[in-house]
Automatic annotation (TrEMBL):
This is Palmitoyltransferase. Its EC number is 2.3.1.225. It comes from Nothobranchius furzeri (Turquoise killifish). It catalyses: L-cysteinyl-[protein] + hexadecanoyl-CoA = S-hexadecanoyl-L-cysteinyl-[protein] + CoA. InterPro entries: Palmitoyltrfase_DHHC (IPR001594), PFA4/ZDH16/20/ERF2-like (IPR039859).
Length: 363
């Protein structure tokens, strides 16, 4: 046990190396920009003030969002999704998977679940011993189930999910602004040092290196930021982008998409004044999500779903069909009625033609 515990502590310590590296680079960039560029290189007082004001604004928002992304604890499923003690003991003693699924189906009857495994089974984490809510996944690095898990990011040493996804997006946005601002304002002095218009001083190395580092990070962050903006607009996580969630009707990569505006609001909240601030404003509790396939109508009676015999023999109550599905069913019924009506007319017309022909032959 002791070596395993020591190994786990070493892994946790090593996981902070990328965060320490980023922190050191940011601290050096602050010194290089403020001291070496603005104080020692730039001669114009007005230019110094403007650069320093905008630099500290972008620097402050970048650091704020970065710290919030790192230290926001990942949200976990509530006790509602844990198996009762008796059911848990039965599940652990049961060896056959089909009977284990019966236990899970029974426990999931009153839970707000719409997604399943690829085989149609209840999503259950044996490690955490919890029924997984929709969009919840187990993170092996954090060793826990994370609500609306997107991915585990080594640069923040944290799992990006429901509790800090907005902070992560803002962190990418403000780090991009920070790098763009540095690259744009340093460019002219980079050219002057490169062409020897300015005398060689200690600031030359810092200014040249600062431009290269800012441009390099800007390119890498831009691609990542653009990708996550696309994911927000589609209301998908990184995991769902590679493996579509499975619903009652099958897998659907757009199952949680509610339209571009509602998708944005679900992550950033309905109050636009807080969108650019790293404060938590995301909608929901992370365990239930509206879908475009199922709209809950409290006035309709719930529909009882009978799972396949190989999976369970227990009734599972799920939400009613959406309006679009009801409309499709009614349209199909109307189409069937029209076809039956036309078929009856054809039969009657055929019978009348037969009678007419027989009468003419008799005459």
């Amino acid at each position: 046990m002791a070596p395993t515990h020591v190994l786990r502590c070493c892994q946790r310590g090593l996981a902070w190396i990328p965060v320490i590296f980023i922190s050191l680079v940011v601290c050096w960039s602050y010194y290089a920009y403020v001291v070496e560029l603005c104080i020692l290189t730039i001669r114009s007082i007005g230019e110094k003030i403007i650069y320093l004001v905008f630099f500290h604004l972008s620097f402050g928002m970048f650091v704020w969002s970065y710290v919030k992304t790192i230290f926001s604890k990942p949200a976990n499923p509530s006790n509602e999704f844990c198996l009762p003690k008796a059911e848990k003991e039965r599940y652990e003693k049961e060896e056959k998977p089909e009977f284990q699924q019966e236990i899970l189906w029974r426990a999931a009857t009153n839970l707000p679940l719409y997604t399943r495994t690829g085989t149609g089974a209840v999503r259950y984490c044996d490690r955490c011993q919890v029924i997984k809510p929709d969009r919840c996944h187990h993170c092996s690095a954090c060793d826990m189930c994370v609500l609306k898990m997107d991915h585990h990011c080594p640069w923040v040493n944290n799992c990006v999910g429901f509790s800090n996804y907005k902070f992560f997006i803002l962190f990418l946005a403000y780090s991009l602004v920070y790098c763009l601002f540095i690259a744009a304002t340093v460019l002219q002095y980079f050219i002057k040092f490169w062409t020897n218009e300015l005398e060689d001083t200690r600031a030359k190395f810092h200014v040249l290196f600062l431009f290269f580092v800012a441009a390099m990070f800007c390119i890498s962050i831009l691609s990542l930021f653009s990708y996550h903006l696309w994911l927000v607009g589609k209301n998908r996580s990184t995991i769902e982008a590679f493996r579509a969630p499975v619903f009652r009707t099958g897998s659907d990569k757009n199952g949680f998409s509610l339209g571009f505006r509602k998708n944005i609001v679900q992550v950033f909240g309905d109050q636009k004044k807080y969108w650019l601030l790293p404060v938590f404003t995301s909608q929901g509790d992370g365990m239930t999500f509206p879908t475009r396939l199922v709209n809950i109508d409290p006035e309709q009676a719930p529909v009882t779903l009978y799972p396949e015999p190989s999976k369970s023999a227990t009734d599972v109550t799920v939400s009613p069909l959406s309006e679009s599905q009801n409309r499709l069913l009614s349209n199909e019924k109307q189409a069937n009625n029209v076809e039956d009506y036309l078929a009856d007319d054809n039969i009657k017309s055929a019978e009348s033609e037969t009678i007419t022909v027989s009468m003419e032959s008799e005459s």
